[in-house]
Design a protein that fits this description.
Number of strands: 7
Largest sheet: 5 strands, parallel
Strand content: 25-35%
Radius of gyration: 12 Å
Helix content: 25-40%
Order of helices and strands: EHEHEEEHEEH
Number of helices: 4
Shape: globular
Distance between the termini: 8 Å
Strand order of the largest sheet: 2-1-3-6-7
């Protein structure tokens, strides 16, 4: 993974979003945008230039899957983040990469490598 990736961060907890931004920058990637609620995520999903999106599954009680559908249709690769791990995923996203919270920089690096092929 030699090139910098543009990553959309969809996370409703500000501290986790900020940590993700820092980790992505440390890994040499660019944060394309940050959304903390589903309406904002939907708006960004429709037009943002991103290679990959890291989406918290639960955004203030609402699932991020509608935004993920828009992103996937636009060719953006997906990584889901959840405290529940893969049991939190729903069809048609059961095969997507999942980051189990809490995660570390090495987990982010590994997830990015898995989807950036």
């Amino acid at each position: 993974m030699g090139q910098a990736l543009r990553v959309l961060v969809v996370e409703d907890e500000m501290m986790i979003a900020m940590m993700l931004e820092d980790i992505l920058a440390d890994l040499g990637h660019q944060v394309a945008g940050v959304a903390m609620r589903l309406p904002q995520a939907m708006e960004l999903a429709k037009g943002i230039e991103a290679d990959i999106a890291i989406l918290d599954i639960n955004l203030d009680g609402r699932k991020s899957f509608p935004a993920a559908e828009v992103l996937r249709a636009r060719g953006v690769k997906l990584i889901f983040a959840s405290g529940y791990g893969s049991p939190g995923l729903e069809a048609p996203f059961l095969e997507e990469v999942i980051l189990k919270k809490p995660f570390e920089a090495s987990d982010i690096r590994s997830a990015l490598q898995r989807v950036a092929v």
